[in-house]
Design goal:
about 120 residues; Lipocalin; globular
């Protein structure tokens, strides 16, 4: 049950309350510059992931490995992840930032649930 709940939450990267002062990121180069040498973290699910310029996603959530691929399509971050055998399907997400400390991902090109990560 916990794994099902967690997989559902990770499908979004996790739902969090909305926060003010977020600015959309529509350029792949800008997105990569913000992530260079940094990690996305979300404490509630013990998520720590790296998104690399070569289209890879690596990290862990709740102690299980996460691996995936990503692409930048029409201004959206599109990804597919395998979370220790649990496939989180391909989805394109709106990316927004607040300063240089927070990055928010909203599934379904900005129409769905969102998750806000700390940039470390």
């Amino acid at each position: 049950m916990l794994r099902f709940f967690s997989a559902t939450a990770l499908a979004v990267f996790s739902a969090m309350p909305a926060q003010a002062d977020f600015v959309p990121v529509s350029d792949k180069g800008e997105f990569l510059a913000m992530l260079e040498g940094r990690e996305l973290r979300l404490g509630v699910f013990q998520i720590a992931i790296q998104i690399t310029p070569d289209g890879q996603i690596n990290g862990s959530a709740l102690g299980w490995d996460m691996r995936g691929t990503w692409a930048w399509e029409d201004g959206y971050f599109c990804r597919e992840i395998d979370w220790s055998g649990e496939v989180i399907p391909y989805n394109c997400q709106l990316v927004e930032v607040s300063g240089d400390e927070k990055m928010r991902f909203t599934v379904d090109k900005g129409a769905g649930d969102e998750a806000t990560f700390n940039l470390r």
